[in-house]
Amino acid sequence: MEDGQFIGSFAAYGYKKSLHDKHKLEIDRDAAMVVRQIFALCAEGIGSTEIAKALTSQNIPTPTLHKQNNGLNFKNPSAEKYGTWSGNTIKKILRNKIYIGELAQGKEHKLSYKSSKILKIPESEWIVIKNNHEPIIDEQLFILASEKMTARRKLKTPSASPKKIYPLFGKIKCSDCGIAMQIGGKTQDSEVKYLRCGLASKTNGK
Questions:
Q1: Rounded to whole angstroms, how far apart are CA atoms 40 and 51?
Q2: Residue 105 forms beta bridges with which residues?
Q3: End-to-end CA distance of the chain
Q4: Contacts of residue 76, Cβ cutoff 8 Å, sequence gap at least 6
Q5: Other CB atoms closer than 10 Å to residue 10's CB: what's the count?
Q6: CA-to-CA distance for 108 and 118, rounded, in angstroms?
Q7: How far apart are CA 182 and CA 172, in angstroms?
Q8: pLDDT digits (tens, 9 = 90+) for 139-180
Q9: Local structure of residue 173 (DSSP, 8 states)
Q10: Residue 136: what pLDDT?
Protein backbone atom coordinates (compact mmCIF):
# COMPACT_ATOMS: atom_id res chain seq x y z
CA MET A 1 0.00 0.00 0.00
CA GLU A 2 2.84 2.39 0.81
CA ASP A 3 4.19 1.77 -2.70
CA GLY A 4 0.87 2.86 -4.20
CA GLN A 5 -0.19 -0.64 -5.17
CA PHE A 6 -3.94 -1.19 -5.21
CA ILE A 7 -4.78 -4.26 -3.12
CA GLY A 8 -8.60 -4.18 -3.19
CA SER A 9 -10.69 -6.93 -4.71
CA PHE A 10 -12.55 -4.50 -6.97
CA ALA A 11 -11.63 -1.10 -8.34
CA ALA A 12 -13.77 1.92 -7.50
CA TYR A 13 -16.49 2.83 -10.00
CA GLY A 14 -14.83 4.67 -12.87
CA TYR A 15 -11.69 2.54 -12.73
CA LYS A 16 -10.64 -1.02 -13.50
CA LYS A 17 -7.64 -3.15 -12.68
CA SER A 18 -4.95 -3.20 -15.33
CA LEU A 19 -4.77 -6.44 -17.29
CA HIS A 20 -0.98 -6.21 -17.08
CA ASP A 21 -0.74 -5.47 -13.35
CA LYS A 22 -3.68 -6.12 -11.01
CA HIS A 23 -2.20 -3.65 -8.52
CA LYS A 24 -2.52 -0.75 -10.98
CA LEU A 25 -5.68 1.22 -11.75
CA GLU A 26 -6.79 2.23 -15.23
CA ILE A 27 -9.70 4.42 -16.26
CA ASP A 28 -12.89 2.62 -17.25
CA ARG A 29 -14.05 4.93 -20.05
CA ASP A 30 -17.80 4.25 -19.86
CA ALA A 31 -18.00 4.59 -16.08
CA ALA A 32 -15.61 7.56 -16.08
CA MET A 33 -18.01 9.49 -18.34
CA VAL A 34 -20.73 9.01 -15.74
CA VAL A 35 -18.40 10.11 -12.93
CA ARG A 36 -17.60 13.32 -14.83
CA GLN A 37 -21.33 13.90 -15.36
CA ILE A 38 -21.99 13.48 -11.63
CA PHE A 39 -19.34 16.02 -10.64
CA ALA A 40 -20.43 18.46 -13.34
CA LEU A 41 -24.06 18.34 -12.20
CA CYS A 42 -23.06 18.79 -8.57
CA ALA A 43 -20.88 21.77 -9.48
CA GLU A 44 -23.97 23.34 -11.07
CA GLY A 45 -25.71 23.12 -7.71
CA ILE A 46 -27.84 20.02 -8.37
CA GLY A 47 -28.35 17.81 -5.32
CA SER A 48 -27.41 14.14 -4.99
CA THR A 49 -31.01 12.92 -5.03
CA GLU A 50 -31.76 14.83 -8.23
CA ILE A 51 -28.56 13.51 -9.83
CA ALA A 52 -29.54 9.95 -8.87
CA LYS A 53 -32.96 10.40 -10.46
CA ALA A 54 -31.37 11.78 -13.63
CA LEU A 55 -29.03 8.78 -13.99
CA THR A 56 -31.87 6.36 -13.33
CA SER A 57 -34.06 8.06 -15.95
CA GLN A 58 -31.18 7.70 -18.45
CA ASN A 59 -31.07 3.94 -17.72
CA ILE A 60 -27.41 4.19 -16.74
CA PRO A 61 -26.37 1.00 -14.86
CA THR A 62 -25.54 1.50 -11.18
CA PRO A 63 -21.94 0.79 -10.07
CA THR A 64 -22.96 -2.70 -8.94
CA LEU A 65 -24.73 -3.54 -12.20
CA HIS A 66 -21.86 -2.05 -14.22
CA LYS A 67 -19.39 -4.39 -12.55
CA GLN A 68 -21.67 -7.39 -13.03
CA ASN A 69 -22.32 -6.47 -16.67
CA ASN A 70 -18.55 -6.52 -17.20
CA GLY A 71 -18.25 -10.06 -15.90
CA LEU A 72 -17.13 -9.33 -12.35
CA ASN A 73 -18.47 -11.50 -9.54
CA PHE A 74 -19.35 -8.45 -7.48
CA LYS A 75 -22.08 -8.54 -4.85
CA ASN A 76 -23.21 -5.66 -2.66
CA PRO A 77 -25.91 -6.36 -0.03
CA SER A 78 -26.76 -2.66 0.16
CA ALA A 79 -26.76 -2.12 -3.60
CA GLU A 80 -29.58 -0.25 -5.27
CA LYS A 81 -32.36 -2.57 -6.40
CA TYR A 82 -33.81 -2.65 -9.90
CA GLY A 83 -31.07 -0.46 -11.32
CA THR A 84 -32.10 2.60 -9.32
CA TRP A 85 -29.35 5.03 -8.32
CA SER A 86 -29.49 6.42 -4.78
CA GLY A 87 -28.41 9.76 -3.35
CA ASN A 88 -26.03 7.97 -0.98
CA THR A 89 -24.18 6.38 -3.90
CA ILE A 90 -23.80 9.80 -5.52
CA LYS A 91 -22.47 11.29 -2.27
CA LYS A 92 -19.88 8.51 -1.90
CA ILE A 93 -18.61 9.20 -5.41
CA LEU A 94 -18.47 12.96 -4.83
CA ARG A 95 -16.46 12.51 -1.62
CA ASN A 96 -13.95 10.01 -3.02
CA LYS A 97 -10.58 11.57 -3.84
CA ILE A 98 -9.65 8.56 -5.94
CA TYR A 99 -11.10 10.53 -8.87
CA ILE A 100 -8.33 13.15 -8.59
CA GLY A 101 -5.63 10.47 -8.60
CA GLU A 102 -5.36 9.96 -4.84
CA LEU A 103 -5.31 6.41 -3.46
CA ALA A 104 -6.37 5.92 0.16
CA GLN A 105 -6.11 2.44 1.66
CA GLY A 106 -5.96 0.84 5.07
CA LYS A 107 -9.36 2.25 6.03
CA GLU A 108 -10.52 -0.96 7.70
CA HIS A 109 -9.04 -3.83 9.65
CA LYS A 110 -10.48 -7.29 10.17
CA LEU A 111 -10.47 -8.24 13.84
CA SER A 112 -9.22 -11.76 13.12
CA TYR A 113 -9.51 -14.46 10.50
CA LYS A 114 -12.03 -16.20 12.77
CA SER A 115 -14.30 -13.17 12.93
CA SER A 116 -16.17 -11.22 10.26
CA LYS A 117 -16.10 -8.05 12.37
CA ILE A 118 -14.49 -5.10 10.61
CA LEU A 119 -12.90 -2.23 12.54
CA LYS A 120 -12.84 1.28 11.08
CA ILE A 121 -9.39 2.90 11.07
CA PRO A 122 -9.14 6.66 11.87
CA GLU A 123 -8.57 8.77 8.75
CA SER A 124 -5.30 10.05 10.22
CA GLU A 125 -3.92 6.49 9.98
CA TRP A 126 -4.97 5.77 6.39
CA ILE A 127 -2.22 5.11 3.85
CA VAL A 128 -2.67 7.88 1.28
CA ILE A 129 -0.69 8.19 -1.95
CA LYS A 130 -1.29 11.32 -4.06
CA ASN A 131 -0.80 11.39 -7.84
CA ASN A 132 -0.96 7.61 -7.79
CA HIS A 133 -2.97 7.04 -10.99
CA GLU A 134 -4.60 8.92 -13.83
CA PRO A 135 -7.35 11.21 -12.49
CA ILE A 136 -10.84 11.28 -13.97
CA ILE A 137 -11.52 14.89 -12.94
CA ASP A 138 -9.27 17.76 -11.94
CA GLU A 139 -8.87 18.93 -8.36
CA GLN A 140 -10.57 22.25 -9.04
CA LEU A 141 -13.82 20.51 -10.05
CA PHE A 142 -13.59 18.23 -7.00
CA ILE A 143 -13.24 21.22 -4.67
CA LEU A 144 -16.10 23.08 -6.38
CA ALA A 145 -18.40 20.05 -6.05
CA SER A 146 -17.45 19.71 -2.36
CA GLU A 147 -18.24 23.38 -1.76
CA LYS A 148 -21.63 23.00 -3.43
CA MET A 149 -22.48 19.98 -1.24
CA THR A 150 -21.49 21.89 1.88
CA ALA A 151 -23.59 24.88 0.82
CA ARG A 152 -26.64 22.68 0.22
CA ARG A 153 -26.30 21.10 3.67
CA LYS A 154 -26.22 24.54 5.30
CA LEU A 155 -29.38 25.58 3.43
CA LYS A 156 -31.33 22.68 4.87
CA THR A 157 -33.08 23.71 8.07
CA PRO A 158 -33.99 21.13 10.72
CA SER A 159 -37.69 20.48 11.24
CA ALA A 160 -39.34 22.12 14.24
CA SER A 161 -40.53 18.79 15.58
CA PRO A 162 -39.12 15.27 15.29
CA LYS A 163 -40.51 13.15 12.47
CA LYS A 164 -43.34 10.87 13.53
CA ILE A 165 -42.61 7.16 13.16
CA TYR A 166 -45.72 5.12 12.40
CA PRO A 167 -46.19 1.60 13.90
CA LEU A 168 -46.30 -0.07 10.47
CA PHE A 169 -43.26 1.79 9.12
CA GLY A 170 -41.27 -0.56 6.81
CA LYS A 171 -43.62 -3.49 7.40
CA ILE A 172 -46.06 -3.04 4.49
CA LYS A 173 -44.50 -4.20 1.20
CA CYS A 174 -45.46 -3.62 -2.42
CA SER A 175 -47.15 -6.74 -3.82
CA ASP A 176 -45.32 -6.35 -7.16
CA CYS A 177 -41.70 -5.70 -6.19
CA GLY A 178 -41.48 -6.25 -2.42
CA ILE A 179 -40.18 -2.75 -1.66
CA ALA A 180 -41.49 -1.08 1.52
CA MET A 181 -44.47 1.23 1.01
CA GLN A 182 -44.16 4.93 1.87
CA ILE A 183 -46.69 7.56 2.90
CA GLY A 184 -47.59 9.87 0.01
CA GLY A 185 -45.86 13.24 0.42
CA LYS A 186 -48.89 15.44 -0.28
CA THR A 187 -51.11 13.80 2.34
CA GLN A 188 -48.75 13.32 5.29
CA ASP A 189 -50.45 16.07 7.34
CA SER A 190 -53.99 14.91 6.66
CA GLU A 191 -55.95 12.34 8.68
CA VAL A 192 -56.24 9.98 5.69
CA LYS A 193 -52.94 8.37 4.77
CA TYR A 194 -52.13 6.95 1.34
CA LEU A 195 -49.33 4.49 0.67
CA ARG A 196 -47.08 4.38 -2.37
CA CYS A 197 -44.40 1.93 -3.50
CA GLY A 198 -41.00 3.13 -2.30
CA LEU A 199 -39.44 2.22 -5.65
CA ALA A 200 -42.09 4.17 -7.56
CA SER A 201 -41.35 7.26 -5.45
CA LYS A 202 -37.67 7.06 -6.48
CA THR A 203 -38.31 6.49 -10.18
CA ASN A 204 -41.30 8.82 -10.63
CA GLY A 205 -43.60 5.86 -11.09
CA LYS A 206 -41.59 4.19 -13.88
A1: 10
A2: 127
A3: 44
A4: 64
A5: 15
A6: 6
A7: 9
A8: 999 999 999 998 888 776 554 444 454 565 556 767 776 666
A9: B
A10: 96
